[in-house]
Amino acid sequence: MTRFTVNNQPIEYRLDPQTPLLWALRDASNLTGTKYGCGSGECGACTVDIDGVPRRSCQVPIGTIEGTFVTTIEGLSRDRSHPVQAALIASNVPQCGYCIPGIAMAAAALLRRDRAPSDEAIHETLSNLCRCGIQPRLVDAINRAAALARGDETVSVAAPPGIDRDDAARAVPALIVPDGN
């Protein structure tokens, strides 16, 4: 049995320790926001945060992350209020949306490390693939997310359809990210 914390909830998986985290999240925990893309770690659709580091979950056996903290797109913010989610929506970045959860998780990790990343740092960090061609708008959206996180800008983003904003905010506890100290 493998134990770690997913979106602030302790979880014990009774799966083979070699099971990729992607499938534990999607199949055993029904956290389907993390997407299967290529299965080889190249595309980034399956990116999640493990102890503050963006990782391609298709390449992480659950047996190797015992005791860690994993955050998926569902744990980032259910009501879309996280600066990255708000900026992506306000900047009209998502098209088909398949790659967006992985991009949002990679961008959130970048902004925790660097509150004002350069365009080059954004390009380097966000190596996620998008077949819809959002890259020209993505750098501006991440810069906007950084401004939102710093409090330099505000935007209003509606809660997902069919979910009351107050209910959405209560559905997922506040994200607690270990600082490594």
Automatic annotation (TrEMBL):
Tagged with keyword Transcription regulation: no
Residue intervals of the 2Fe-2S ferredoxin-type domain: 1-76
Alphabetical UniProt keywords: 2Fe-2S, Iron, Iron-sulfur, Metal-binding, Oxidoreductase
Pfam families reported for this sequence: Fer2, Fer2_2
Xref: PROSITE patterns: 2FE2S_FER_1, 2FE2S_FER_2
Name of the top EC class for this enzyme: oxidoreductase
Coiled-coil segments on the chain, per record: none
EC number: 1.3.99.16
Domain of life where this protein originates: Bacteria
One GO MF term: isoquinoline 1-oxidoreductase activity
The protein's name in its UniProt record: Isoquinoline 1-oxidoreductase alpha subunit
Species: Sphingomonas japonica
Lineage: Bacteria, Pseudomonadati, Pseudomonadota, Alphaproteobacteria, Sphingomonadales
